[in-house]
Design goal:
heterodimer; A: mainly alpha; 77% helix; 0% strand; B: mainly alpha; elongated
């Protein structure tokens, strides 16, 4: 099935229509999605700044990562669930939307970044765990994360301006 | 000067007019407002969750609050400035908006609580997640959540 056909099918479905045309459902789910930004990006921001060695330098990196990232994961679940519902309701419209396409692309890369980081630079964390200065790989991961998530937020907001 | 006069004045400021009439002015200001929301939300969440006994449990709430203070203050500044700029592009709509008025009231209450009882709860040692710290954390989250929801409602009501 062609992707556009799938989007159209989602859009025309009863479920999608109900969400889209409901006075409360769509605004409520959208509000959850906007406020969920704080739980997802707000917490990963703290981890990224620790990786850059500019925030919470007194705390071991591994501790910040192990205690804050679970919160980020909760935020990710909230955002994916609310995002899927929003997308379901507006799938056919979003398919053509360049801002939305950018958002999805940035989202995928933002998801890849921690995977790469954890399997490479982070492996040797015990060597720099308690230090204020972090290795260049950690700094790059931090900057990439901050940039990508900012991009997701910006593209997300821009989606409204490219709507039909 | 009455409040309505202040709002009307805001609508005539040069910067308000420039942003409103530029193609991407409003959108850009909103994006800055959202980015600041992420940062401010994160700095508030990490402290309130700690008060609720979640997250950075090994550190005292006071230590966590102090460590994220630069983020809190920096993002609060940006969110307030961007908020005023957005307001200046449509001041009378906001003036008459129930959602906007509710948001301002909740923002005032959230900040008031933050600098008074919440601050006391954060400083109180050593009990982790006592009934007072839990209440302060929960109440703070509820107030800030209210600010966020009211903000969203401005577009709808």
């Amino acid at each position: 099935m062609h992707l556009m056909q799938l989007c159209q099918w989602l859009y025309d479905s009863h479920f999608g229509t109900v969400i889209r045309e409901s006075q409360f459902a769509f605004p409520l789910i959208e509000s959850v999605h906007v406020l969920g930004i704080a739980l997802l990006v707000g917490t990963v921001l703290l981890v990224d700044l620790r990786l850059l060695g500019v925030l919470m330098e007194e705390e071991p990196v591994s501790e910040v990562v192990s205690r804050v990232l679970p919160l980020t994961w909760c935020g990710f679940v909230v955002q994916v669930l609310s995002g899927v519902l929003l997308f379901w309701a507006k799938a056919a419209q979003y398919y053509e939307n360049p801002a939305f396409r950018w958002k999805v692309a940035l989202l995928l890369v933002a998801g890849l970044n921690p995977l790469v980081f954890h399997s490479t630079v982070y492996r040797g964390v015990s060597a720099w765990n308690e230090k204020h200065t972090t290795p260049i790989g950690a700094k790059i991961a931090g900057i990439l994360s901050l940039t990508l998530w900012s991009g997701v937020i910006i593209a997300g907001r821009a989606t409204a301006y490219f709507g039909k | 000067m009455r409040a309505v006069d202040l709002f009307q004045w805001l609508g005539h400021t040069a910067i308000g007019l420039v942003i409103r009439h530029s193609k991407w002015g409003v959108a850009l200001t909103e994006m800055v407002h959202l980015l600041a929301l992420a940062a401010l939300g994160g700095s508030i969440l990490i402290v309130d969750l700690r008060l609720l006994g979640v997250g950075l449990r090994r550190q005292s709430a006071l230590r966590v609050k102090r460590e994220v203070a630069p983020i809190f203050w920096g993002s609060l500044f940006v969110i307030l400035v961007s908020g005023v700029l957005i307001l200046s592009t449509e001041p009378m709509k906001c003036y008459h908006s129930e959602a906007f008025r509710a948001k301002m009231l909740l923002l005032f209450l959230a900040l008031l609580f933050h600098f008074t009882l919440h601050s006391k709860a954060v400083k109180a040692e050593p009990a982790i997640a006592s009934v007072w710290s839990r209440s302060a954390g929960a109440f703070s989250l509820a107030l800030w959540l209210g600010v966020g929801l009211a903000g969203r409602a401005i577009g709808f009501l």
